[in-house]
Amino acid sequence: MLGFTLIRVVGDSMGRALPDGSFALFRKTKSVSSGDIVLARHHRFGEIVKRVELTTPETLTLAGDSPDSVSSSDIGTLPLSAVIGRLVWCSKPPA
After folding, report:
1. 37-42 vs 83-91, strand pairing mode
2. Per residue in 66-89, pLDDT tens?
3. Which of 48, 42, 53, 46 is nearest to 78 (CA)?
4. pLDDT score for 1
5. Residues 58-65: contacts with CB within 8 Å, 24+ apart?
6. What is the pLDDT, as a whole number, of residue 15?
C-alpha cells in the first residue's frame, strides 16, 4: 500500500492515544523523534505499537503509555531498522 500499513490495535498499552479496537495507519519512515508513536518489529513480542522514548542515530527505546504496558526495559533497545512506520492517522472505536 505505497509505504503505508493499516492495523487494528489490540490491547490497552497505548492508553487514550490508541484505545483497544482503534484502526491506526502508519507510514514508512527512516527517522523518528521522541514522542512519536510507531509500529515496530520486536524479536520477542512481534509487531508492537509503542511511543518512542529515546533515540540515537541508530537505535530507539520504546514504551507504552499505560502503566500496565510491557516496560521499556523488557522491550530493550531496538535498531532504527525495526521501525515499520510512524503513526499518521487513527480512528478510535465508538464509545
Report:
1. antiparallel
2. 998 999 999 999 999 999 999 999
3. 42
4. 56
5. 60/32, 62/38, 64/13, 64/14, 64/15, 65/13, 65/14, 65/15, 65/16, 65/17
6. 86
Overall pTM > 0.90: yes
SS3 of residue 44 by DSSP: coil
Q: Examine the pLDDT at 94 and tell me if it is beyond 90.
A: no
SS3 29: coil
Residue given cell 509505504 in the structure block:
3
The whole-angstrom distance between residue 3's C-alpha and the CA centroid of its chain comes to: 16
Residues 6+ apart with CB under 8 A from 47: 7, 39, 40, 41, 84
- C-alpha span between 66 and 71 (Å, rounded): 10
